[in-house]
Amino acid sequence: MSYKAPRRCSNGRNFGVERHQDFAADIAPRRPYENKGPNKWSRNLVWTASDGNKPRKNGNTYGSTKSQVSGTAASVSQQRKNAGYGQVSDTRGWGSSNRGSPKSKECVCKFWKAGNCKKGDQCSFLHSWSCLPGLVMVAALEGHKKDLKGIALPQGSDKLFSASSDGTLRIWDCHTGQCVHTINLQAEAGSLICEGPWVFLGLPNAVKAFNVQTSKDLHLNGVVGQVRAMTVGNGMLFAGTTSGSISVWKATDSESDPFTYLTSLEGHHSGEVTCFIVGGHRLYSGSVDRTIKVWDLNTLECTMTLRQHTDAVTSLLCWDQYLISSSLDGTIKVWACSDNGSLKVTNTRRHEQSVHTLCGMSDAEGKPIMFCSYQNGTVGICDLPSFEERGKMFSTNTVGAITVGPEGLLFTGDRSGKLRVWNLAGTKV
């Protein structure tokens, strides 16, 4: 079975218009960007089988036998056999993969673990760490004061973007790890994603779209409420808000109207929209109203509502035609398509802590792994489809943002504003 990433919104089009000084001027001047080709990574990497557009029928029980694990791993590995993680690219950062921890001693500070280390950044012991072989922290980026709402490394850029509820957008140089620009948004940032060279920033009643290659930006109207989640699919941008609405813009080839407001999907979610994922020809949206809505990307109609969670849905992931969801109820659920076409839960993983973020990538051997962020600051790392634990990452606060970057890079942001850069090196585990 072959795997492919979801369709990208930009698709080579130039959506730029005359730039607005309030957003773009603070970023210039900048180093010329190079177009290094398509970026195969997205905010939450989606593995979607090419022979279908919906989760797999549950006649083949998810994660039930050992053969499924090896079979899935073999097919992914074969497709990605030349995509192993090695040294980090010199052009996009953070030094080489064997650089290890920025601290002098690879030992966790016992006072930090207890929450009372008084040395702070001057401490010679680690204040963030992981126990997954081959995964090392290569940079600790300090500056945000509140929780990270999104981390984005757009295509063709050597700058990392991060947005926080502290009302700032920070831009970091991937070569030095230094913050080169801090933009006061004069509003709370609710979401940040990138697609191709575009960076999308969710604000109250608006979305900002900025192109890192052309320095042009858009102010997208048509939003009611604070934008909390965004995604792209089938040539459209979707923004979910605190009001429960989902605003939709369509990418066009028109120079005068490159990003056209299409519609608002109203009257379905009764609470804040918290997360999206696109799989095949479907959009999935999660909400604090405890439901997951399934939308047809061709008709923009809601085709079904999933109601198995007992608390707010926090994150969604598509893998091998399965839908995986997490919730504040402490569960991770796996959904598969039944014989009548409806989605049914085929596996429920229960945890003592509420689950906040899911993110997927492939390890050095091309095997799919999933990162699961919990309330207590830990991030579990497990194999798919077996859910066998591979390792953990640790932080003093809940990790609310996890973004996959190129060449084994991983970015995490926690509720205190700490931004960490990790590298999954080429070590076989």
From TrEMBL:
**Disordered as annotated region, ranges:** 1-103
Q: Quick check: keyword Transmembrane in the entry?
A: no
Q: Which UniProt keywords apply?
A: Metal-binding, Repeat, WD repeat, Zinc, Zinc-finger
Q: Tell me where in this chain the C3H1-type domain is found.
A: 108-130
Basic and acidic residues: which segments have biased composition? 16-34
InterPro entries, from UniProt?
WD40/YVTN_repeat-like_dom_sf, WD40_PAC1, WD40_repeat_CS, WD40_repeat_dom_sf, WD40_rpt, WDR86-like, Znf_CCCH, Znf_CCCH_sf
The segments carrying the WD repeats are 141-182, 280-305, 306-335
GO terms for molecular function, please? zinc ion binding
What spans are recorded as compositionally biased (Polar residues)? 41-51, 58-81, 88-101
In this chain, the C3H1-type zinc fingers fall at: 108-130
Give any Pfam family that matches. Answer: WD40
The name this protein goes by in its record: C3H1-type domain-containing protein
What organism is the protein native to? Brassica campestris
